Amino acid sequence: MEKHRIxxxxxxxxxxxxxxxxxxxxxxxxxxxxxxxxxxxxxxxLAAPGLVLLSIFVILPFLIAIYYSFTNRMLVQPSSIATEFxxxxxxxxxxxxxxxxxxxxxxxxxxxxxxxxxLVLSLLLALLVNKKVKGISxxxxxxxxxxxxxxxVIAVAWSLLLTPGESGxxxxxxxxxxxxxxxxxxxxxxxxxxxxxxxxMCVWMSVGFQMMILLAALQSVPQELLEAAVLDGANAFQxxxxxxxxxxxxxxxxxxxxxxxxxxxxxxxxxxxxxxxPQNSTSTIVYMIYEKGxxxxxxxxxxxxxxxxxxxxxxxxxxxxxxxxxxx
Amino acid sequence: xxxxxxxxxxxxxxxxxxxGCSDSKSTSSSGNEKKSGEKVVLxxxxxxxxxxxxxxxxxxxxxxxxxSKEVEIKEEVFPYNEFTNTIRAATSTNTLPDIMxxxxxxxxxxxxxxxxxxxxxxxxxxxxxxxxxxxFVKYNGKTYGLNEQEGGLGLWANKGHLTKAGVRIPTYExxxxxxxxxxxxxxxxxxxxxxxxxxMKINYGGDYVVYAWQPIIRxxxxxxxxxxxxxxxxxxxxxxxxKAYNYIKDLVKAGYVNxxxxxxxxxxxxxxxxxxxxxxxxxxxxAALKDDLILLPLPDFGEGSYTGVGGxxxxxxxxxxxxGYTKQAMEFINFALGDQYQQKVNTANGSLPANLNILKSLDxxxxxxxxxxxxxxxxxxxxxxxxxxxxxxxxxxxxxxxxLDILSGASINKRLKDAxxxxxxxxxxxEGNKK
Lengths: 328, 435
Fold this sequence. Notes:
The structure holds 2 protein chains of 2 kinds. By secondary structure, chain A is mostly helical.
């Protein structure tokens, strides 16, 4: 009924008439309109530009990567070698390469430590800068600033901070703060510490951005709820635990999911600072893909790693979502 | 109406974007076919250099175009750091220009991809007879690239420190020996202000090792690969290479080399006495140390003292050869390698002109000159060449990683074996199973 009325209204609209030309094309015009005014088809039409771009630049390359992962394809294929199917050779290499498992564990280690630390720190910062104090926006700006500095600048700055030995900046600061109890670390030169160095840096980098998201969520916590809690006699911790935290739930879920996926995409910091060393202690999967695909030109092999990673990250996100739903 | 308009424009924009993507292919190669008047127009691609280099290269093209009646060169300049990726991308889309000025280490890869052609037949006699042997970049025995300039690698030293320590100053004829070198380092370590006497430029990262350590490894009798059989296993992890690594590790253990170095100016700030770098540091070191700066050959660890070479090469593309323009392209390259430009190479960027006669005639390279050693080494063919292999980037990355791992405590034998296996795999992937 509703649809029909709209349609009819438009048919009688002189402006539409004037534009749609001779009556001869009337029928075509009608199907055209149906396409646009039917909510289902209109959705497709409007989404088309985005979908086209997405399929060309994301979906299609991914399908090609799946295809390449079963071939001997090189980055630039020499004319003397034909692109051939090699079965599961590339996947066999992935699973027998010790560097792959090391890289994978590094990514896990990174996610397990970086994600919660980032979240807790950014929550604390958000609570702090949510206080209505004069000049607080300056602190918000300062804490947020790492999010707008290009990664390469951050990495170079941190390579200076992480200078090994007693003269290193971070070493000196930690040493002073602990009254000499902190022994200088070799940071990026020691295989047992290097990944931690990267975690420290990445946490510093992303805390500001996460703080901003949590701050926005904090500010949308209804004031009435907090007032009601005060009237009910809830203390500050109880208000945080039972009123504020539940209200932040969605933002926290978003941050956990996105930073977990981000942890598996760790690349730039590794590329600039350590190149995966020393002794593969900071090698990550994406760095490995880069190394195989672009330095070694083994595109087929690199594609196989990418496919494996896609599956793993997909499964991880799925499990995370399930867990979140269960706790709902 | 409004909705319709929105849909229309978004579809139009999308189509425009797609059209934009497919268009770019056809435009860049079309310039090659065009003839301006009677002249054949050839395109030259190169990475952007320093101001001095830019002036020299622009001059070459301008002068050539003025004097040639048949050929005109049109140059296109790309960001230097991305140049290798640029030509690789152009290779996969068949849009390479006629002439390229590319890093010598990429030449073998491009040759294997059939993107460039051998030029042996069209090399000018001046280039053939006067240029250093290292200037001819080869793949499978044929010359694909011609270097305009060469690098020099040795030990920059603080003469004041050497006299204070009371050690002999080595020469081209009589470099330090293996045992003498350790003795020298132990004496230099005692000089005031020196913490680690030998600066091996660990701060340059792993990528530097394949170049700077090769003369040392070669002097022990080892190498990154066997230059004749092209086998990596057995050479990279062979006894002699392992011996070289053990020796360097001893230097680290004794406190002569800092394996966690991050500073770049140790020689200049007089915290180190010897510095393993090349010609490119000459201007800044000279300015800082003045007459205290001297250039020393690397020690002879048993099989002679060597330097490392390398440069940027002129190459002719397959596309130019297919059009029958190899000769015309080489006409320009021979012209650009002519004496008047060779004379300017050193002032342009401090490197060594590949023409040995010109090199000899420059004051800095004459006997008594600061850089005379480089001339002696090139003339005497005391140089090593990095693997001229299509998989060179893998050599660079694997050797670098293995070395840094070894410096941070990994087992030498195992790590070099792993590296050689990794390189062998890439080589066999890259070159197929040659029958």
